[in-house]
Write a structure and sequence with these properties.
Layout lengths: L6 H8 L3 H4 L1 H9 L7 E4 L6 H8 L3 E6 L5 H9 L6 E5 L12 E7 L8 H14 E12 L4 H10 L14 H5 L4 E7 L9 H14 L10 E7 L1
Parallel strand pairs: 1-2, 1-4, 2-3, 4-5
Antiparallel strand pairs: 5-7, 6-7
């Protein structure tokens, strides 16, 4: 966990399966030099968690979502004292309404699967590359396809599981073609089976000790940092 965040703040930023998904923040900090006043586009930010994270680092953040932003998100940012660093926008990630080379960072967490098909997902990746400045970075954490057991249980128990397109682990190489370089990793197997946040927290201990021996194609989270 980044040392400057409290447990409450980390929960607000990550929202669910916090122990495993928060590994993305460590990965991003390792592979991206995040500086104050960087221009950041945060996509799919209905709850505003990543926008809070980057605003706390002093970045100028566009907090965006395909749907209108809830009042509760803006109030949360006000309560956390970062509203002066955040603006809000309605953005379709398949056709991002910003000029080429506009942002130092484009970020998202658990968003692109909602597009539902590979063609639209690749359109979104091309758009992200377009709006990044040369040398800018695309930081992401996304739901991986995982194992056959993950696939079955998602369809059985997650209400949007049928419509969500989970990303196969080898497909990140196709994303990477839009960028000059990049790093990515895959994480987690057990915690997805938890039905509550407490259960997921307990199961994440197993992931922390066994991730190295779990086949990459079985892991259920992708982390990445790609450079334009």
């Amino acid at each position: 966990m980044p040392s400057n965040l409290s447990k409450e703040e980390l929960s607000t930023i990550i929202q669910w399966d916090v122990k495993n998904w928060s590994k993305a923040l460590d990965f991003w900090e390792k592979h991206a030099d995040i500086k104050p006043d960087m221009k950041v586009l945060a996509l799919g930010e209905r709850e505003g968690g990543l926008s809070l994270y980057f605003a706390k680092k002093g970045c100028e953040v566009v907090c965006s979502d395909y749907n209108p932003m809830p009042d509760s998100t803006q109030k949360m940012h006000e309560d956390k004292g970062v509203s002066n660093k955040i603006s809000y926008a309605k953005v379709d990630m398949k056709a991002i309404d910003f000029e080429d080379n506009s942002f130092d960072l484009v970020v998202f967490k658990s968003v692109i699967g909602a597009l539902g098909n590979k063609e639209d997902q690749l359109k979104a990746i091309k758009e992200i590359a377009r709006v990044l400045k040369p040398g800018g970075k695309f930081l992401f954490a996304e739901n991986a396809e995982g194992s056959r057991l993950h696939t079955y249980l998602r369809k059985r128990f997650i209400k949007w599981g049928e419509g969500w397109r989970y990303i196969p682990y080898k497909e990140l190489e196709e994303w990477k073609k839009e960028f000059s370089s990049g790093e990515y990793a895959h994480y987690g197997f057990h915690a997805l089976f938890g039905r509550s946040e407490r259960q997921r927290r307990i199961l994440s201990v197993w992931d922390a000790t066994s991730n190295w021996m779990t086949p990459k194609k079985w892991r259920y989270i992708h982390f990445g940092a790609f450079v334009k």
